[in-house]
């Protein structure tokens, strides 16, 4: 074995370690150049990716109807019609309620911030009576002012994003057309893109992409719907103001790993400004529901779909968010899982060749 390794080094003239040391910087440089070159096409890429994700989700009910004996054309027509009716109902009924609650929150936000300041001042007086050498005045002022500005900016950005997304008829039409085309001819598109690969890798990448992305997004979407619905009902029972808005925000952020924890903390603090005891109740109830969702519902839906260590999940989210924004965050985990599976397959094949 040692002679073979020496022969390999002498034939190429370059040590394998040096080759690998060059490969990673070159791969990173190529990726950066690709991202830079495709920057002008980012809006179009967002539409294509969004349509692809929707087509992935719609393929499940289509296959289910096919198993029941329906022709594929009828199954596609029924699923697309039901999806269109569902989106129309959401836009016509739920969206106006969300926008109304968001406007109400923006109008009442200054009063909530002032209430939070008063509660924090009471806390400062209590700390002073306990003779603790801590002054909260400057901290309270800076924190509440900064939080107020951030909340106003974030809320206005969310409102603008929602209105911009749903009032852009052209983007909605393009996304719908692309979704229909991908639902009908998605398999042919994938086969055409992978035709330059060997049959072995062609089948592997096709099946791995379908298994990783489709299963991940279907399971993650179901978890988000379950979590958002449960929290909205719980917040309504607790008489939390704007319960639909807060429950929906937490449910939507649940599409991104670990993001629901941040949105729950944010919501609890915000409700705490309005009413401290209610904010604590919101936090406790949300934590209980999330634990039930993660420990009982998630294992049955997801299992070990990603196969990623939590450390790499966080790293992939940071990279995805930096490169692709919201869509990057949504795609980061399944893409990282696909890369890991492909790397494992390459390593397994290399080990198999070396053992022969």
Task: Summarize it.
This protein has helices at residues 2-12, 16-37, 42-67, 72-129, 137-167, 169-193, 199-237, 243-253, 259-274, 276-301, 310-355. It is an all-alpha fold.
What does it look like?
- α4 packs antiparallel against α5.
- The protein has a domain of 151 residues.
- With 356 residues, the chain is mostly helical.
- The longest helix is centred in the N-terminal third of the chain and has 58 residues.
- The relative contact order is 0.07.
- The protein is globular.
- Helix content is 87%, strand content 0%.
- The N terminus is likely disordered.
- The chain has 11 helices and no strands.
Radius of gyration, in Å, reads 26 Å
The percent range for strand residues is under 5%
Q: What's the number of helices?
A: 11
User: Order of SSEs, N→C?
Assistant: HHHHHHHHHHH
The helical percent reads: over 70%
Q: Can you summarize the main beta sheet?
A: none
Taken from the alpha-carbon principal axes, the silhouette is globular
Q: Note poorly predicted spans.
A: 1-11
The N- and C-terminal alpha carbons lie at a distance of: 12 Å
Content-based structural category: mainly alpha
How many beta-strand runs? 0
The pLDDT mean sits at 77
């Amino acid at each position: 074995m040692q002679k073979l390794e020496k022969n390999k080094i002498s034939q190429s003239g370059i040590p394998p370690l040096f080759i690998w040391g060059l490969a990673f910087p070159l791969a990173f440089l190529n990726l950066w150049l690709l991202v830079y070159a495709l920057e002008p096409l980012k809006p179009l890429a967002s539409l294509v990716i969004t349509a692809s994700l929707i087509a992935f989700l719609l393929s499940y009910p289509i296959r289910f109807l096919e198993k029941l004996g329906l022709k594929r054309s009828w199954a596609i027509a029924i699923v697309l019609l039901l999806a269109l009716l569902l989106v129309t109902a959401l836009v016509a009924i739920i969206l106006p309620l969300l926008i109304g609650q968001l406007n109400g929150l923006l109008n009442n936000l200054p009063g909530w911030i002032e209430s939070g300041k008063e509660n924090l001042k009471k806390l400062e007086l209590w700390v002073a009576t306990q003779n603790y050498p801590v002054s909260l005045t400057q901290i309270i002022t800076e924190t509440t002012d900064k939080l107020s500005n951030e909340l106003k900016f974030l809320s206005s950005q969310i409102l603008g994003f929602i209105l911009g997304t749903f009032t852009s008829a052209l983007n909605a039409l393009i996304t719908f057309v692309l979704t229909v085309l991908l639902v009908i001819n998605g398999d042919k598109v994938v086969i055409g893109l992978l035709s330059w690969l060997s049959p072995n890798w062609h089948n592997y990448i096709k099946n791995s992409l379908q298994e990783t992305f489709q299963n991940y997004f279907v399971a993650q979407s179901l978890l988000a719907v379950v979590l958002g619905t449960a929290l909205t009902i719980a917040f309504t029972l607790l008489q939390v103001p704007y319960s639909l808005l807060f429950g929906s925000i937490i449910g939507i952020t649940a599409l991104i790993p670990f993001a629901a924890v941040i949105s729950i903390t944010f919501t609890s603090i915000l409700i705490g400004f309005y009413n401290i005891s209610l904010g604590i109740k919101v936090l406790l109830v949300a934590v209980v529901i999330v634990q039930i969702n993660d420990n009982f519902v998630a294992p049955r839906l997801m299992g070990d779909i990603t196969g990623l260590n939590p450390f790499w999940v966080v790293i992939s989210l940071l990279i995805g968010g930096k490169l692709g924004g919201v869509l990057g965050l949504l795609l980061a985990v399944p893409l990282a899982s696909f890369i890991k599976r492909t790397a494992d397959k390459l390593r397994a094949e290399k080990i198999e060749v070396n053992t022969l």
